[in-house]
Amino acid sequence: xxxxxxxxxxxxxxxxxxxxxxxxxxxxxxxxxxxxxxxxxxxxxxxxxxxxxxxxxxxxxxxxxxxxxxxxxxxxxxxxxxxxxxxxxxxxxxxxxxxxxxxxxxxxxxxxxxxxxxxxxxxxxxxxxxxxxxxxxxxxxxxxxxxxxxxxxxxxxxxxxxxxxxxxxxxxxxxxxxxxxxxxxxxxxxxxxxxxxxxxxxxxxxx
Length: 207
Hints:
The chain is of the alpha/beta class and 207 residues long.
């Protein structure tokens, strides 16, 4: 597998800087390296936030904009973003109508978003989360905490983003998010194993 990168340690910062230069409709916040739409916070609108480990671009920064996410928190390669990054991003996009976090069912994501949610709640921010766990291939796997959140995440970001743009309330968006998650199923099969850039190793080979 070939990659166009300079230094592994600079992948996240360089890709976000390049992405922001190519897309003036988003703002990059370099202190914490999260992304928001340029007009955030949008008055009278519930804000949507998601995030996760980098390495699956254009997730999630590529889905920030009108009718989709208001903010995105990319972590390092295959690593959950930190709670302080989620906290900063949520504060930047909150208009007072509340913030809905779309969380994929990975242990690091769930724990860190939960911590950020508690911090925001303590400050009086209206905050809610919707969990995405559509991967039926690993429901009973020893290596996951239940079903992972994968392809349905994009559908949820788009559908909830459109609903938020038309003025749906935080409670309405949570209900819609559960409906989307409960009706989305994904089965993942890899023909080539994951290649870890940090250690230059392929984790497995399919026959």
